[in-house]
Amino acid sequence: MLDQRRLPAEVVYHTYTDYAGVARAIKDMVIRGAPAIGVAAAMGVALGVERSPARTLDELRREFPAICEAIANTRPTAVDLFWALGRMKRRFAELVNGAAPGALDGVRRAMVAEAQRIHAEKRAIDEAIGRFGAELMPQSGRVMTQCNAGALATAGIGTALGVIRCAVEQGRKLQVLVPETRPYLQGARLTAWELQQDGIPLTLITDNMVGHFMKTGQVGAVVVGADRIAANGDTANKIGTYQIAVLAHEHNVPLYVAAPISSLDLTIPSGEHIPIEERAAEEVTHIQGVRIAPDVAVANPAFDVTPARLVTAIITERGVARPPYAESLRRLGEEGARIQDSGFRG
Ligand code: MRU
């Protein structure tokens, strides 16, 4: 894993050889961003099975829930994590139910293959999101994003940044306004770095400049990622997305959410049911280890929920959902499930 805590100053990779290490890496944000967390979760489960000390299928069956539990107890908001766990659990159940007693090594290999399949699928999904979303981007001018919904946050070209990448590839003359995204600075550290590497023009701004740039007509569209989208289209994304959405609405700027079907949580009716992760106070009181505030009470919700009425459209790999989302998302969700059931697995 590329250590995202150290970017852009240092490019450092870590290798993990046990599932507990992968769980820690997700929790500590070595890897972050909803789809990347999902892929890491699948890899973590695969690693747990591959390296398990179990000598029989029964022993592995007994150990398996603890592996999944460790991965689940890392970050609560991004539903991709739970989607990936669900998929790995279903595959495990398929493999062990009715398996021959000596099939342990086959199960280990098949679980690794399933995680690799998820990785490959996620790459293709980003490309599809990018293609659908590019058509919604303006021909030229500035588009705003939030946090980092780029290649670092997924297994491919990114969701929101994938849309921007595809639009630029198609010849649209876009520049990206990148809010720094306090407190963790995913905008300043990661999105700015990614776009710079790709030669896509960007302007870094602080979070409190968003209103000014909207008001002075300098934003043609907003495109953000998502951590969890409820059945009615309410969308949890990095803290600050809600205020950008309110400002975009006030200034008639369209706001697009770009996310894979796996970020839909159709089991919850609205955003009120989305668990919001509260992170450590030090992320607010300190920057890069340097204290910038006295030792006072701190709030650090990592995500906020943007109500569906502020979202112009939701871009997925299956197409673009428009309001009313209860209807359009249900249709896209069903389509996704049908494709998966009919042998996406090959
Ligand atoms: O706390 P993070 O950095 O994991 O939060 C990431 C975001 O909020 C992203 O916008 C979201 O996960 C979509 S990533 C394609």
Each distinct ligand: 5-S-methyl-1-O-phosphono-5-thio-D-ribulose
Radius of gyration: 20 Å
Shape: globular
Mean pLDDT: 95
- Uncertain segments: 341-346
Protein structure class: alpha/beta
Topology as a string of helices (H) and strands (E): HHHHHEHEHEHEEEHEEHEEEEEH
Major sheet: arrangement of strands: 3-2-1-4-7-12-13
Helix content estimate: 40-55%
Number of helical stretches of at least 4 residues: 11
Distance between the amino and carboxyl termini: 27 Å
**How much of the sequence is in beta strands?**
5-15%
Task: Write a structural description.
- The protein has 346 residues and is α/β, with parallel strands linked by helices.
- Helices cover 44% and strands 14% of the residues.
- The chain contains 11 helices and 13 strands.
- Strands 3-2-1-4-7-12-13 form a 7-stranded mixed sheet, with helices on both faces.
- A hairpin with a 4-residue loop joins strand 5 and strand 6.
- Helix 1 (19-27) runs antiparallel to helix 2 and helix 3 runs antiparallel to helix 4 (79-96).
- Residues 341-346 have low confidence and may be disordered.
- Bound molecules: 5-S-methyl-1-O-phosphono-5-thio-D-ribulose.
- 5-S-methyl-1-O-phosphono-5-thio-D-ribulose is lined by residues 32-35, 78, 147, 149, 153-154, 159, 186, 225-227, 237-238, 302.
